[in-house]
């Protein structure tokens, strides 16, 4: 009943822009509003046979696979220790898992370039100060993989955290009494039960890394490593822009992601992952014993690599009067440091306005996105609506389309729509909701799969209309997942760069654009670093919002 | 309200869990659903409650047709006013005990104070008033089950479905709640359907018993009817009649020849010409120690009486359940009072006897009805 | 706001404030930019500018314009290709907001002209633009040229500083050399054309042999140079100049052989014709003041009659100098595909 | 292996669920834990299995001390080789039935083929071999329970803990599995601990029964002992002795005066001078219709015999359970065979009689032992 209207809504948000792109992929010219021609062709797909594309694709796959696995390991580890064990400083470790979200991957990459470049990287400079040769080269495949993993691990963390915090310990206890050691229990019960979350976040992360341009640009290109995102970027940046070919690449990616989504659906459909049942969910934490301290140390290592070191790098480049530093000793010279860049950064009208826009847009987009994702997740995994398969696929499509390409699709869509949203903040909000549909959907869907439907059905039998039952039983049970999803979408919206680039105007400029512009300027590294730090601070403060919601009283949860 | 189920069919994917099920529960009646594990009891309840969408058939509650596959009609679950105690309890782990029980009253718009009072009353009935403010996931298994029960009782539904609501409770509590349930049911004229594996419970609660086998109802009758005249040998076996033997008509119409034993039993019932089974309730098998001075078995020709040896005897409180193998090789199970002198132990020599009236003659299974033209 | 003040101050540091006379229309540095009627109308109006050039450079230009004229500008900055997509789409949907558009690619300008984004417009100073140089249309013109020259990190290379293009292939800088990918934009194409024409394709290969690091964007290259990650590079002059002004230890080199430049087309839209402020901005940008300010930012001015204007300590050749190798629209169309192939082959670069 | 629990105490937050519990299960013995809902049975099992950390006490299995609060020693659950069937089943929903059962064998490193064979064997025992490849969440309640049981049986543990393992099964299956469990337990000399609410089950499976009340063991003995000589009236009541009356010593040492009834009962047992309870098993109450020609109650002075009226009678298959109120106002419950003639119905006039040997005299509760110096 609710399936079809919802499919229509999501389809409208997602399919119309995607439709433009498919059209572009098969057109000779870019089909813009006002000049939509039907000069169809398949020539655009020839680009896939372009020399070097295969090598680039190979590199991208290698990087994406390694980084996805690493991100899953990091995120899974943090999620497990915070949701299920008695690790020391639990709430701080939770923050550790979350915080890299505040650092957009391109800022993280730049920070790591500052830290780890083979020539002038701070780490190498430090080593040289100590009389050793600088051993670190971030401009390498391992370097790119590390940075990608560091900044995508929070996705895995957030999604798995909600899955793991809802697990019924009886299921694990059963493994314990049947001879499974802690590790084997985790491997054969805990992790498999979190499979929807693992596969879901793995799929997300893989595709996002595969398409990530910023990190490739900053870290891979200087090292002479070609990647597919750079290739798509080149296509889009060619003059005149080769949008049709980029769209063709996007169509191939969409096909791949649809296939992967279907495969994932098949894997998950065979089994059930219900962990919260009406026979009770007794909150119980695992004792780490001797591992308590090592686990904390591991989390701290991640914290240092993803947050502390990069922020210190940025801080140093924000307060250093000269971007060049021959040795750490030179910092003690008079006039080497000052903080004017911060003052410049935060006092400007433009900054204040952009910050305001960003916060407003992000909050609304995260809210809208969470609601939509919940509805879609619910319809797909709890109802027998005919449309549910289609709904899931459609929800995942934005993931497949590189943001640059999707941005154009959204631009076309909202230019031709006879509703006056273009040029306002609304168009950004709508765009963000569409772009982030996959992230929201996966986050919630995996949680829905883990609650026993009897719980909700019993409320219905006790006289509650379905919606009431959802709000009384299902939503509160999914509290952790819903608030994590909200947080995820909030952060993503704060960071979203490519889509607003096509949709913003001076009045609706967002912080991410302001910062990107500063970094893009070249030479404004000081101000850019300062602004980036302030930006991280804002995200940090914002992130308290959903955590307040999530941390409310309750018998179980984070 | 009267519940009427016609031609019900439910499939989980390819697996057909309920096939062509007909069942009527009269207004105010309590029907107990008996059947072996996996035969489709919970599924039937879920259909009546509106939680599953059957593939065929109609369901009506009172005068309303709440489901009709042919006309695509399906009243949503929350408007059926059907209460259900789930086999999986479905207690909400994130709420307190009281919040769980108050919920249906809140849905009915009962004012706060009143709601609390009534909920506490019900909780008191199930013996949990002192845990009202405890989180519902911090309870023992039996306590959770009682919360689930209380929640449905608080709702005052027009039809109450109970899926093994007392399975985790101790005998005494169970008996108390059983009496309480029966009282409420009779007092409020509540139509109810009950799944239990406990025969005592079935007998105590049922106006009628519906025996379910393989997704359909094979016998429906009062407890005494079902107990005294099971419709088939498989039903008899299910009801605890352990002595079931394949038989054919012997030299007389009332002499059953046990297939594979070379033994015959006198019976007071007619034996059909096609194959049948004879069933003897363990309570109807009399066991006497051979060296006892008890009254000898009646020696008239119609009495079945065999010498045998005790294989195993289990003390059951007020009675003893023992397995005896007759010298002719027939294994018989018997439940009898402890002998006044001597002990019924492994190896003891005994005489077993069964009155012909207690030798039941039944078909193997209840024949599948020709599929009625429901789909037509 | 404060930022505007800061920017205006920075602008004033680059080039001293001109003489402004508003007694009868707007006259800056002796040139009449707007008559009384237009000027009065423009003061109540806001110019909407879409620009594909660097944020910092455009913001300074806008601040300077606002300080000169008291007319407000709303700037939307986007990378050229995205800007093109935006403008063409908005135009198609009949919702184009911009009055003036500045981009970095002549071929895009041509597309704009064909699509009716740019409309015919002549500033009062159009006659002063050198005839037949870079651009050929009545709908857009070259505002200035983005220059590609050389630069090095003066903290890393302290003795025997580089002076000419051949230093890029000097083995002493092996692994310390940076170049920007040709796919990045018009000015890099101009550089490639210049290098191939002047030194032959072998020169590109020589750079590659020197283990040149290829950057995908101008800014990351300049950052890398500033941090000493690379020591020497062919680079976007005005980016590096701004970085130097911000304190980076970068020194620029304007080699004897000359520098490469690509035009940045500017044009007025339908909307711009109706917007007095947009017209004044267009006029101003071709005025002596506008042109000198561009030159002071490290661009080559389109006009050649504005006298020598230094960018800080550097003196770029003027547009009519033989040392200024300016890519024309024609050349671009003819050579860019082939050049790109040669370049990519030389640097083994994908794209 | 022998299990020895000493001075166990477990607290959930502020709530003390187990207090000073002592229990020894001999090697190869099967102890059934009886006790009312919420008394701490599951908690005790969880402590033995190593799933909860007690606040006090020691637990040893065989010769190993697996838990000692004072020395902070705690062997992790997976190294105790203790099998457990959870009350909540805890069947892994993401695995198939077979995978569930194979798990413990996999943990023991049994080779693949062997593992499969053995698992299928066990599944066959519980009647689920045909569902081996079904996802474990697509089962009925009873089927899940059997999977949980099979999983623990497959493990061949040194100690097996079963928390109501058969509560959701029908009588017949239950009996089969009960016999099977007992066979395995005896054959393998398995030490086991069993929670059940079914008395029949308790009697059939137990070598000894441990009665648990309020977090401690109040009586431990063979089924016959417990049944014949409950240690207190509350235990008797729990075991289904519904006729419990407060009493004091009457005119003779063997005459109990029922408090509040003005009635006296002869008993064959001595009555202590302090207050006590008299308990009469319903089976020990004889009910005779007044107008029946049955043998009149023995008229010797020591027989307790009263005239009364039937309040309610429930048919229970082989017997009838009825409530009789004597003309003196005493309510008595009786379980008796159906009378040969006439019907025991509401309002029927009857004579009830109880032999003095069946009038048990018991203390109200088992006195709490002085806390032994465990913590010292
Ligand atoms: N997580 C918990 N937090 C607080 N109290 C608890 C928790 N789990 C159980 N309890 C309480 O501890 C007591 C003992 O629980 P336990 O589960 O051992 O009972 P049980 O004897 O198994 O009962 P049942 O027969 O109903 O399963 C109960 O009163 C219960 O309410
Ligand atoms: N989700 C499902 N998918 C497939 N088959 C199912 C599913 N749920 C139940 N079944 C099957 O349907 C049949 C009937 O299940 P149902 O739960 O109604 O049994 P039941 O009579 O309640 O049994 P029990 O007494 O064991 O609870 C069983 O054989 C079961 O295996
Ligand atoms: Mg069931
Ligand atoms: Mg329990």
Automatic annotation (TrEMBL), chain A:
Transmembrane regions: 61-80, 92-115, 138-158, 189-210, 246-263, 295-319, 359-381, 393-415, 421-438, 472-494, 528-545
Annotated localization: Cell inner membrane; Cell membrane
One GO location term (cellular component): plasma membrane
GO BP field: transmembrane transport
SUPFAM superfamilies the record matches: MetI-like
Record-annotated ABC transmembrane type-1 domain positions: 57-264, 355-546
Alphabetized InterPro entries for the sequence: MetI-like, MetI-like_sf
Membrane topology type: Multi-pass membrane protein
Coiled coil: none
Gene3D superfamilies: MetI-like
Family, similarity comment: Belongs to the binding-protein-dependent transport system permease family.
Protein name per Swiss-Prot or TrEMBL: Iron ABC transporter permease
Upper lineage: Bacteria, Bacillati, Actinomycetota, Actinomycetes, Kitasatosporales
Automatic annotation (TrEMBL), chains B, D:
GO cellular component: ATP-binding cassette (ABC) transporter complex
InterPro entries: AAA+_ATPase, ABC_SmlMolc_Importer, ABC_transporter-like_ATP-bd, ABC_transporter-like_CS, ABC_transpr_FbpC, Mo/tungstate-bd_C_term_dom, P-loop_NTPase, Transp-assoc_OB_typ2
Record keyword Transmembrane present: no
GO molecular function (one): ABC-type quaternary ammonium compound transporting activity
Domain of life: Bacteria
Keywords: ATP-binding, Cell membrane, Ion transport, Iron, Iron transport, Membrane, Nucleotide-binding, Transport
Residue intervals of the ABC transporter domain: 3-239
A Pfam cross-reference name: ABC_tran
Its EC number(s): 7.6.2.9
Broad enzyme group: translocase
Protein name: ABC-type quaternary amine transporter
Annotated source species: Streptomyces roseirectus
């Amino acid at each position: 009943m609710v399936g079809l209207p919802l499919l229509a809504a999501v389809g409208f948000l997602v399919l119309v822009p995607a439709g433009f792109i498919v059209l572009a992929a098969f057109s000779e010219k870019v089909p813009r509003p006002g000049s939509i021609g039907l000069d169809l062709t398949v020539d655009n797909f020839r680009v896939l046979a372009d020399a070097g594309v295969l090598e680039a694709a190979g590199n991208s796959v290698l990087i994406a696979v390694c980084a996805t696995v690493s991100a899953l390991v990091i995120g899974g580890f943090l999620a497990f220790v915070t949701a299920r064990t008695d690790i020391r400083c639990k709430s701080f470790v939770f923050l550790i898992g979350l915080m890299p979200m505040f650092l957009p991957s391109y800022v993280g990459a730049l920070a790591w370039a500052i830290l780890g470049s083979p020539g002038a990287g701070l780490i190498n400079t430090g080593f040289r100060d100590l009389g050793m040769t600088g051993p670190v080269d971030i401009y390498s495949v391992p370097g790119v993989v590390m940075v990608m993993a560091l900044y995508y691990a929070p996705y895995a963390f957030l999604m798995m955290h909600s899955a793991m915090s809802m697990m019924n310990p009886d299921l694990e206890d059963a493994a314990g009494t049947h001879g499974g050691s802690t590790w084997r229990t985790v491997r054969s019960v805990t992790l498999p039960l979190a499979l929807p979350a693992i596969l879901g976040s793995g799929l997300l992360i893989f595709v996002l890394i595969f398409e990530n341009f910023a990190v490739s640009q900053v870290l891979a290109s200087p090292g002479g490593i070609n990647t597919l995102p750079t290739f798509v970027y080149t296509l889009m940046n060619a003059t005149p822009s080769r949008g049709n070919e980029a769209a063709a690449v996007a169509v191939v990616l969409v096909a791949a992601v649809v296939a992967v989504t279907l495969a994932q659906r098949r894997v998950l459909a065979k089994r059930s992952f219900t962990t919260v049942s009406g026979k009770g969910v007794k909150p119980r934490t695992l004792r780490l014993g001797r591992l308590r301290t090592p686990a904390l140390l591991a989390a701290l290592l991640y914290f240092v690599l993803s947050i502390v070191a990069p922020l210190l790098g940025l801080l140093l480049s924000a307060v250093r009067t000269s971007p060049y530093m021959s040795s750490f000793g030179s910092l003690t010279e008079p006039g080497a440091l000052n903080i004017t860049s911060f003052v410049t950064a935060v006092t400007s009208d433009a900054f204040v306005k952009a910050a305001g826009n960003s916060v407003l847009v992000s909050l609304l987009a995260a809210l809208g996105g969470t609601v939509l994702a919940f509805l879609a997740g619910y319809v797909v995994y709890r109802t027998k609506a005919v449309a549910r398969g289609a709904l899931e696929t459609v929800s995942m499509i934005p993931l497949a389309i590189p943001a640059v390409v999707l941005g154009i699709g959204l631009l076309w869509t909202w230019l031709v729509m006879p509703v006056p949203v273009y040029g306002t903040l609304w168009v950004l909000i709508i765009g963000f909701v569409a772009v982030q549909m996959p992230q929201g959907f996966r986050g919630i869907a995996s949680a829905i799969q883990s609650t026993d439907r009897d719980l909700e059905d019993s409320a219905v039998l006790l006289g509650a209309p379905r919606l009431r039952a959802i709000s009384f039983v299902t939503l509160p049970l999914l509290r952790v997942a819903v608030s994590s999803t909200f947080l995820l979408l909030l952060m993503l919206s704060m960071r979203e760069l490519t889509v607003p680039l096509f949709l913003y105007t001076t009045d609706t400029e967002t912080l991410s654009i302001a910062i990107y512009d500063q970094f893009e300027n070249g030479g404004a590294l000081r101000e850019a670093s300062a602004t980036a730090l302030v930006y991280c601070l804002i995200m940090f403060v914002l992130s308290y919002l959903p955590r307040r919601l999530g941390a409310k009283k309750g018998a179980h949860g984070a | 309200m009267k519940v009427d189920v016609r031609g019900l069919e439910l499939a989980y994917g390819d697996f057909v869990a309920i096939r062509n099920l007909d069942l009527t529960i009269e207004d105010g009646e309590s029907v107990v659903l008996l059947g072996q594990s996996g035969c489709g009891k919970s599924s039937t309840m879920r259909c009546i409650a509106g939680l599953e969408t059957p593939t065929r058939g109609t369901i009506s509650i009172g005068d309303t047709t709440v489901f009709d596959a042919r006309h695509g009609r399906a009243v949503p679950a929350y408007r059926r006013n059907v209460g259900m105690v789930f086999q999986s309890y479905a207690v909400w782990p994130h709420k307190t005990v009281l919040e769980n029980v108050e919920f249906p009253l809140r849905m009915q718009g009962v004012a706060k104070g009143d709601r609390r009072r009534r909920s506490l009353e019900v909780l008191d009935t199930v013996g949990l008033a002192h845990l009202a403010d405890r989180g519902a996931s911090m309870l023992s298994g039996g306590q959770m089950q009682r919360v689930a029960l209380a929640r449905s009782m608080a709702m005052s539904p027009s039809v109450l479905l109970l899926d093994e609501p007392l399975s985790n409770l101790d005998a005494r509590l169970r008996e108390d709640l059983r009496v309480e349930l029966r009282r409420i049911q009779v007092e409020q004229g509540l139509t109810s359907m009950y799944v239990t594996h406990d025969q005592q419970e079935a007998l105590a609660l049922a106006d009628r018993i519906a025996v379910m086998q393989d997704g359909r109802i094979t016998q429906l009758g009062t407890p005494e009817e079902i107990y005294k005249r099971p419709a088939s040998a498989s039903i008899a076996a299910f009801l605890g009649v352990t002595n079931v033997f394949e038989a054919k008509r012997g030299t007389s119409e009332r002499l059953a020849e046990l297939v594979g034993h070379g033994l015959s039993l006198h019976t007071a019932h007619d034996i059909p010409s096609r194959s049948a089974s004879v069933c003897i309730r363990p309570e109807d098998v009399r066991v006497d120690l051979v060296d006892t001075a008890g009254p000898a078995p009646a020696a008239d020709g119609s009495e079945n009486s065999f010498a045998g040896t005790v294989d195993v005897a289990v003390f059951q409180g007020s009675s003893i359940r023992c397995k005896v193998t007759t010298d002719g090789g027939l294994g018989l199970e018997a439940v009898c009072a402890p002998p006044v002198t001597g002990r019924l132990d492994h190896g003891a020599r005994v005489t077993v006897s069964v009155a012909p009236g207690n030798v039941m003659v039944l078909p193997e299974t209840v024949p599948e009805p020709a599929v009625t033209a429901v789909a037509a | 706001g404060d930022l505007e003040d800061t920017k205006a101050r920075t602008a004033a540091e680059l080039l001293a404030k001109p003489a402004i006379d508003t007694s009868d229309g707007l006259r800056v540095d002796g040139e009449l930019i707007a008559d009384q009627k237009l000027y009065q109308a423009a003061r109540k109006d806001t110019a909407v500018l879409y620009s594909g050039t660097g944020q910092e450079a455009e913001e300074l230009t806008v601040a300077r314009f606002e300080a000169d004229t008291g007319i407000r500008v709303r700037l939307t900055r986007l990378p050229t290709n995205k800007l093109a997509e935006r403008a063409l789409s908005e135009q198609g949907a009949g919702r184009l907001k911009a009055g003036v558009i500045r981009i970095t690619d002549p071929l895009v300008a041509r597309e704009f002209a064909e699509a009716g984004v740019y409309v015919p417009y002549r500033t009062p100073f159009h006659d002063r633009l050198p005839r037949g140089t870079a651009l050929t249309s009545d709908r857009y013109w070259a505002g200035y040229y983005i220059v590609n020259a050389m630069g090095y990190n003066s903290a890393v290379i302290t003795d025997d500083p580089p002076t000419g293009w051949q230093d890029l292939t000097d083995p002493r800088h092996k692994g310390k050399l940076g170049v920007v990918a040709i796919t990045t934009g018009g000015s890099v194409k101009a550089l490639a054309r210049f290098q191939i024409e002047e030194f032959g394709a072998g020169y590109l290969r020589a750079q590659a042999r020197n283990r040149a690091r290829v950057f995908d964007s101008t800014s990351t290259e300049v950052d890398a140079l500033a941090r000493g990650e690379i020591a020497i590079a062919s680079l976007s002059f005005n980016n590096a100049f701004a970085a130097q002004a911000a304190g980076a230890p970068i020194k620029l080199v304007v080699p004897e052989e000359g520098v490469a430049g690509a035009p940045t087309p500017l044009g007025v839209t339908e909307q711009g014709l109706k917007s007095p402020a947009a017209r004044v901005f267009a006029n101003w940008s071709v005025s002596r003041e506008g042109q000198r300010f561009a030159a002071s930012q490290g661009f080559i001015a389109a006009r050649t009659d504005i006298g020598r204007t230094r960018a800080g300590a550097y003196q770029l050749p003027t547009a009519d100098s033989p040392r200024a190798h300016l890519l024309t629209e024609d050349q671009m169309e003819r050579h860019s595909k082939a050049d790109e192939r040669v370049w990519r082959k030389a640097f083994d670069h994908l794209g």
